[in-house]
# Entry
Amino acid sequence: MGSRIAAFKTAGTAKILASLLIIVCVFGVFFIGRIDEKRTYTSPELARMDTVGEIDEGMTVVQRFTCTQNGLDRIQLQFATYARTNQSKVHIALRRKKQVIQEWEVEANQLKDISYYTLKLDRKLTGCKGKKLNLLITSDAEPGNGITIYTSRVEGESGLKRNAEVMADTSLCFKAVYRDSLSSLGSRHLFRFLLVVLAAVIVWLLSQRKADTMLPFFAIWIAMTVLHAASNPVFDIPDESNHFMRIYEITDGHILSEYSEELNAGGRELPFERSADFQNQLYVPDWYHYDEVKDQETLEERLFIKFSNTALYSPLSYLPQIAGVGLARLFTKRIYTLVFWGRLANWLAISLLVWFTLKLLPWGKEFYMMVLLAPMNLFEVFSLAPDGLVVALSAFIMAFVLQIRETRRKLTARDYVILYAAAVVMCSVKIVYLPFCMYYFLIPADSFRHGWKGKLIHAGICVALVGVISLGWMRMCSQFLVIPGTNPGMQTAWILSHPFTYLLILLRYLLEQGGALMMECIGSVLGWRNIVVPDTFILLYLAAMTVLVWKAVSIRVPGRAAGKKGPSEISIHKKSMQEEGIQKGSASVGEPGKHSAFAGSTWRSFLDRHSVRLVSLVVALAVGFLTLTALYIQWNTPYALTLDGVQGRYFIALLMPFFFVIAKGGRREAELMSMPSQCCAMLVNICTCACILFRNI
# Structure
């Protein structure tokens, strides 16, 4: 008894010391960040007043400037695209006298309108204070297909030239970022040391208990979400500012956005600044500058804000966010507070769906946990974007259907409501996810009140309901989809008339970009700022997921040893035999009709045993094809031979269907998140957040 008490006290003391060490490490990390921020200097931002003119192949722009600090690390130029997608290349060179320090080549279609683009130097310029440098900017654009750069009026400035013409009292709108190299080097190594210590302590704590519940996963889920939330500034998620405007519009009681013929865009009069100014005004590159904008409130005056891309979204896409923002509007006008409440409500709804999904999933739980903890998914989950919700909904549908299939229970009125509501909400967010409803056909016919007849009736009702709501909404909002240079009608007609050519375009694109898309799907590139996570971490995460797939393929499911069927398969086989009229001992070898009946029964049994794989394969291929086709129609010029606008995050929801294609089925109650998976998820996400917080290092 005494030895047990002593062991308990020792373990308690060790946990207390470990907890204190974690606190010290966390505070140390943020202390480093504060020191590092103090050692970073950014030149003052210049107010934009005009532009340098369209930069085409006949124009050369030279900006001369003097370094005010040592350690020039990057240069930020404020571009304008004339609200169009330009297909050209911009060449930029940083020079000192005749020496070329570094050159960049930027695709014009990657530039955002009225936004800064960052040019990162491979190596910081040490000892450059007081030295004069030149930025040389050219382009290969044809007239009407080029970009421009904003200019500002600066008294006494004579460093800007356009085609050898001096533009007096004028400067490009640019910012120079300087960093102390010695400080950065020390911060980097100290942070890596603390990171290793923190990961080791977490692993040790988790190893003190068995993972016999979902508690370890949800502890990691909450901790990693909080870490991402603390790392990602507001509006850093793609299109989050436009999502916020759409949500605010709905909380005002407007279901459908307005269309402005003058601006040729969808939007509404809202108490904010103009669209681009609003985002630039509230966007901060990191939380260190949060104090500068945290107190900004909605205005009394309302101006028309355009947000055509999110005006397409149905209010059903934002149900949690609407609740959060609507509640916050009752007691505050602060914009950041409204955004936070919307983010929090969205995360709570997703977490609830995740909990139910893990409860229902008969197998594949650990792989699904790894999908949820992928950096890209966590990056999207705590935001106003509906992408995280649709990923959770698609997995919930799969889990709910598989649970019914495994238990073969009768459907209740509540089940019908859940099935219909999940399908409608999911397809309202992304109509291309409609093939996920094919999982409903996996529900056994005897689970319906009227058997096959009831199954077909409810399938028809579900398809009709989803089709009417989703396609009807798309019909009403089609006018908002305005992208310069595209023609959806012409693209659709061309695809229908040249299907094989289009399939070859898709195949070539996937062969060229498939690997990059998979890396992006896990989280190799994050946010508007294109934060790059080292490939080592992403490959480590992919390796861990591959191991889980291999385990799911090679594992022996209870009841399958020595060629035996599982319990559900035995009942399915018996039922199919009974439907064919074949009972044990009813026929002997050589009796007429035995071979054909047995063959039919075997075929049906084969389909029943592999139906989950077949449906998952069809769903994955169909959703992938529809996603790529929708992007090709909406974002690409007519007859384009490649695809633009494709991002890896669009395919997160397809990871589970592909897993079900490969994995063996069968209920495995004890399948929970293993220690290696926990450690891998935490390590990769901590390093990802470090890349976000210390992206300038």
Notes: Residues 14 and 464 are 60 Å apart (CA to CA). Residues 30-38, 181-188, 207-212, 559-599 have pLDDT under 50 and may be disordered.
